[in-house]
Design goal:
Helix content: 55-70%
Organism: Dyella lipolytica
Strand content: under 5%
Transmembrane segments: 29-52
Protein name: Signal peptidase I
Largest sheet: none
Number of strands: 0
Number of helices: 3
Structural class: mainly alpha
Oligomer: single chain
Radius of gyration: 14 Å
Mean pLDDT: 87
Keywords: Membrane, Transmembrane, Transmembrane helix
Length: 60
C-alpha cells in the first residue's frame, strides 16, 4: 500500500507544477522532471532565474 501513496503524492505534485510551467510559457511536460532526483532541483533553479518565454513575448 505504501507505493500507492507515493504515486498519489507524485501525481499531486506534478499537476500544479505542470500548470505553473505552462503559464510560464514552457511545455507542461517539463514538470515530469520532478520525478528525477537532483534534476528536479536544477530544474527549479533554471525556471526561477531564467527569462520565461511569456515574459519575452510581452516586451516590445
Amino acid at each position: 500500500m505504501h507505493p500507492f501513496f507515493g504515486l498519489i503524492a507524485g501525481i499531486l505534485a506534478v499537476i500544479p507544477a505542470w500548470k505553473i510551467v505552462s503559464k510560464a510559457g514552457y511545455n507542461g511536460a517539463w514538470a515530469l522532471l520532478l520525478f528525477i532526483p537532483l534534476v528536479n532541483i536544477i530544474m527549479m533553479y533554471v525556471f526561477a532565474f531564467n527569462v520565461w518565454p511569456i515574459e519575452r513575448a510581452r516586451t516590445p
